[in-house]
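F.,

This is the one I mentioned.
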């Protein structure tokens, strides 16, 4: 099954990265500020992109390993996301943190897969910018 894999090195501590991926205030600074998230395994996180006409994404929080891993299962989104999951592996490196992001479980490489890859590239750059400069670019990229 096709998998999106994206790596980023970020000049921030693993704890700061973990917080930016799990805390509502942090996620709002790099992904979307219209969200509801409770950082608890089993809870349902909702990310709304309705003001851009892109709808609502929901993920079940499957695993939270402080400073090391965040894993979600897609529960609502594009039909091609059914059965997919996203994972952020967080590893300390000399000058910060390495993130290996995966979005796996796609049935095929198609236009939605490629669009999803581009969107995640954009948002991981936004996450990096937020953590390194205090300013991310939440919302939607032009190509959403």
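My design for it:
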């Amino acid at each position: 099954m096709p998998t999106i894999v994206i790596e980023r090195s970020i000049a921030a501590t693993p704890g700061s990265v973990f917080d930016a991926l799990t805390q509502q205030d942090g996620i709002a600074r790099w992904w979307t500020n219209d969200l509801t998230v409770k950082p608890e395994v089993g809870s349902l996180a909702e990310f709304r992109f309705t003001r851009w006409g892109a709808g609502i994404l929901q993920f079940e929080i499957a695993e939270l390993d402080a400073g090391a891993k965040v894993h979600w299962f897609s529960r609502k989104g594009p039909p091609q996301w059914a059965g997919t999951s996203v994972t952020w592996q967080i590893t300390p490196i000399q000058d910060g943190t390495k993130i290996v992001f995966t979005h796996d479980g796609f049935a095929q490489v198609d236009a939605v897969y490629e669009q999803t890859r581009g969107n995640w590239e954009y948002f991981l750059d936004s996450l990096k910018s937020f953590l390194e400069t205090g300013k991310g670019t939440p919302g939607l990229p032009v190509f959403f």
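The chain has one domain: 3-133.

Talk soon.
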